[in-house]
Design goal:
alpha/beta, Rossmann fold, 351 residues, single chain, five-stranded parallel sheet, 11 strands, six-stranded parallel sheet, 14 helices
Length: 351
Amino acid sequence: MERLLTKTLIVRLSSVGDIVLSSLLIRALHSRFPQCQIEFVVKEQYADLVRYNPHVSRTIVFPSHGSLADLCRLRSRIRQSGYDLLIDIHDSLRSRMLCLGARHVVRIRKRKFARFVLVMWKKDLYAHAGGAPGVAERYCEPLEPYGVADDGAGLEIFIPGDIQARTARILERHGLTPGSPTLGICPSARHATKMWLPERYAAAAATLGTSHHLPVVLFGSADERERCAAIAAAIHTLAPALSVTVLAGELSLLETAAAMDSCALVITNDSGLMHVAAARKRKVLAVFGSTVRQFGFFPFGTESRVVERLDLPCRPCTSIGRDRCPRGHFRCMKDISVHQLLHAAGELLSS
């Protein structure tokens, strides 16, 4: 008998990249069950990534610093809401608590054992654990019995017209013409071992911006503004005539996504903004250090290149990133040259 869904709840509380990656599941689920009411639980600071999605019937916002009492109240609401299915694509202590007591729950297969073995002993067991598809595809795996699968259309972020217009005004205030090609740089990440060296970002941006006549725009959060400003200053030293704009800390997540629409290329670390750029179908050049393809976070659904040191025996040293290199040499990033990045960027820009 065909399994029908009329009301489902997706649970993914954080973070930027993970929530953007869930857009494939949302669209594929809605396509398979057009009459299904799809609701989504997400933390407050990431809610805009979901609330404008036309495939989502309701966004349930969890407080950014929610307490145990908040969790219990939300769990009670969930148990009373009559969902056919709860889809836990977070698989954390909090998400499991929210799903506790529900009759029908499916959960992402994180391949935790294969990940642990790869990090600890550098043995790749992913072939024995269902392979190593991208995380966006892994989100769909629990729904395979319901006929939900990757539709090949990549990721999505939906941006309302007023936010598009506001972003255009901000760009114009900085002397940038909306729609005119730029070079986007996202030089930060949550963890230090995911960040390529700032002086090399500056050298690559100065060369590419000058040779391809592309104004450089640096993206990031308010916490990342200082790093972006230092890179901007270094670019200006190397290429005084090149236009360089720091938008880190000035734009919301959706405004950042809208501003990226002008980027001919986005150069980024393994970060949430990498997935934002992929969702806006930008050409993405990603630098990977301590993390690897098997974890599922390579750029998805857009034209991309990844620059990484493949033959380093200590890699990966972590699945999420570290504050410092455990060996002290940081070769996973230091061994990636500006020349390597320029070669990959040239391929993307000429394609």
